[in-house]
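Predict structure. Chain length: 397.
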Amino acid sequence: MERLNKPLKVKKIVVLGSTGSIGRQTLEVIEMLGPQYKIIALTAGTNDSLLAKQVIKFRPKLAVLSNEEAAGRLSEALNGIGCQVMSGDQGQEIAATLGEADLVVMAQVGFSGFKPLVAALKKGKDVALANKESLVIGGEILNKMGLLDRTRIYPIDSEHSAIWQCLRSGRKEEVDKIYLTASGGPFYGKTRKELSHVTAEEALKHPNWNMGGKITIDSATMMNKGLEIIEAMWLFDLCLDQIEVVVHRQSIVHSMVKYKDGSVIAQLGRPDMHLPIQYALTYPERLESKFENFDPFDLVLDFKKPDRENFPCLDLACRAIKEGGTMPAVMNGANEEAVRSFLTGLIGFNNIAEMIEAIMNKHKPMSDPILQDVVAADRWARREAKVYITAIERRMN
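Prediction complete.
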């Protein structure tokens, strides 16, 4: 008797932050994977023109912009398409909790991804997470609320995806430590004095990766690796002393896991986000990829310790998680404002770490915070950042 082919179940996907770097690459992966993957909602910040193009191409049922004015322009552009348009935090959270969604991709940058993540996890959604800041500021709260279900959170960051894959080689209790690899960014080897003269344009020229502006600056300051340490602690239930950062300039080894017997399992690949995105979308399956694959021939790898003296943001992030409570939220908020100020020319590169440390020094962390405390700590840090910037402007004038 001839076997009947069962139709494949369509996986319905929500992409939050679809106009950013990770969001755009997620759509490329979904397009490559074919009709088995269906986008049902897309959200963005203020880029209504790009979101309109994405909606016309992928035909989701819902599109959301954070800005109400931009949402109005989007509604006009999509007239007759049959896509509902919403705006604001409420719209983002509605998208994150759509009942029919099988997977919610969190591709926003910064604090903006926190509330939608909480909403999605409360609804029991599977989440593909690229928004590391959500766990940085709220990992402790999510854990206490019982929402940090590690079977439902699929990391997209290349380093955390690598660890996630390597951890399939053994049991958690067999893990000795993990090695988070870092490219070192565009200023590897420079002194503090040399860094005082670098420009935003130079900082945005990452040697290996094509990323958004905020994460590229975080890579240049090494803050990105500090944020990833905190993210890894919550994602994989690890202690701070189980995580070691190693500088790996080639960005081929995306991270490693060392087991108690001395075995080290590494995940290798090209510096391309399409692979970790695809793995999160198709998990637990591995499907063929049409993107360029890794070639091991003529490969040279080296690893070095990070320069913590000239790149102090790494230790500031470690300090934040050690102090705990509301301090990670303050550190993250201060960093977001410092990066924004650097990109707009208000402060120099070295001022980023100085600004973060100054704000952290003024904060008395609240232990055992609730959700509102974290939100308040983030707002306080941003207000203090404005005070810091005003003081700099006065000195210059």
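Summary: The domain at 11-155 is CATH 3.40.50.720 (Rossmann fold).
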